[in-house]
Amino acid sequence: MIHGVTSTFDSFKPVVFDEHFNVVLAERTTEATRTDTRNGLGKSLLIDVIHYCLGAGFEPGRSVRVPALAGSTFTIDISLGSTRLRASRHVEERGVKLSGDVGDLASRIDPDLHGDATLSVPAWTRILGEVAFGLEEKQDFAPTFRSLISYLARRSPDGYLSPFHAWRSQLTWQRQVNVAFLVGLDWTVASEWQRIRERKKALDQLHKAASGGMLSAFSGDVGQLEAEKMTLESEIHRLAAALDGFRVHEEYEELQDAANVLTADITTLVNQNVSDRRLLDLYRTNLQEETVPDVDRVIDLYRSARAAFPDLIARRLEEVETFHEQLVANRRQFLQSEVARLRNDVDVRERRVQALDERRGEIMRILSTHGALGSYLQMQERLVGLASRAKEVDQQIQALRGFKADRSNLRVEQEILYQDAEAGMSESYEERQRVVSLVADHMRALYGVVAKLVIEVTESGFKFDIETERSGSQGVERMKIFVFDLAVASVWAERGLGPGFLVHDSTLFDGVDERQKAVALELAAAASKNYGFQYICTLNSDEVPRSDLSEDFPFDEMVRLTLTDRTEDGSLFGVRF
Amino acid sequence: MGQGAAFLELLDEPRDLTTLWRQARLRSTVRSFEQFILVIDFLYILGMIDRHDSRIARVTA
After folding, report:
1. Partner-chain contact A291 B34, CB within 8 Å
2. What is the pLDDT of residue A248?
3. What ipTM does the predicted assembly reach?
4. Fewer beta carbons within 10 Å, N or C terminal of chain A?
5. Going by C-beta distance under 8 Å and a sequence separation of 6 or more, which residues neighbour residue A163?
């Protein structure tokens, strides 16, 4: 229970609260202050002051740490369980000063602390967590005092968007863990979910880094890589064998040139033989075909000529006979000698060709079983390249496999967690049924409709919702927050646990119909009395549902502080800033 | 006689028998080797050609 709040700031209006229902009223008389962009009358600041005393971190210059409040100290007078003490905190200096029944509390951390004590803020919030919520040593992804109290004293405007959201940029796991805790679920399950999420993230980053560090672009799946590996290996095998049997010949290129020269020579000789053979055929044919007129015909010719042109005859018959014989003989001789010559040339060339061909054959044999040094070195280089690529591919396969295995393991863990969570749901049924039924009761009281606090286990953790036939309007959504908070506060108080108070800012009632506002306020008053906790709310005076409140509802008696803009010093701090 | 005249045309310079025979055959100056020889004999009889070494040449007056 919060007994009161004071400050060393001169014109601060100290406020004293009652053990059950409390209202802080903000009176607006002028239109100007309604739209004022400055801090207004300070009702939201009051809630911040409570938070600050209970260990909230505000940045310098923000909220209670604005320059106008420099040098101030705020003190909260609070009962936690059976311990009553005062906690004071300076807006600039570190630490929290405790006074009152410190001993019992502080000795939980330091047995030597008695009487007044100054604690560090973390130590203070740790104590608060223990006393208010039974929290144990700090763990990862666990509820903390600060996160839980943010649900029981929501700050405007971000705390009034949804029942399960308490502050801006709240993370998924924070939402799940804290709401689970408040509702009575096994919150450790939500922590585990986050751990799995974190590991998944780390795994993905590792995977990305590993594949990014490789030489070539990371290529698809294991199947593709395996196929590439096989191709590489067979190529490597082939190359290695080739290199193994490779014999380098120092004069490889020279031998290649020699072989080419031989080929050219052989071709020339063969061509020459082709044309000589043609000539040979011709002469042989001539030899056969050239029949010769015998000497008688010559004599006849002579005699005919002498008869025809006796004056023109220039030779004697003998001369002509001799001439003729020589002519014929020479011709025959010529042909025969040509034939002989050609045949000889052809033979010689043939033998030469044979010799050259043999020599060329020898060279070809050497060339086929050896290789040039250049080729050898090239093959070696290629082999090295292939081997390194093969290693790379292998590494990628290993990495992928490992990644897949880890991923698979995580999935299994996630599945197991999911099943555990479901099992846990039935175990914690009793606990959360109280909250569920109170939510239903309150919504029925407010709107006369059926409403259900729905808690689901999904693969990614808990899911919360308040389902009702009437949804959509801002007013209804705000009332969902109201019924949720009220149910949680009631159940915790019923068990004798919890911080013992619930604080609501006037933002909660924005957009809510007058009727519902009245019902809500009376519900809160009744619950705080029935279950034994303290309810504090701030309200704008012109939004009080006077006409809908019950006649015997002593509203004005429960207003502990009225802030007004009627006078300059009517705000919480007595000054406007 | 006509063949003789045509034949003489082939002898613008001294030629050996193989060449003469080829050219004569090409230009169809003679129809056979026999005729070829006879034409040469004939021109020799008329003193219009003679043999020099292994060649046949025209006789210049």
Report:
1. yes
2. 85
3. 0.90
4. C
5. A464, A466, A480, A481, A484, A485
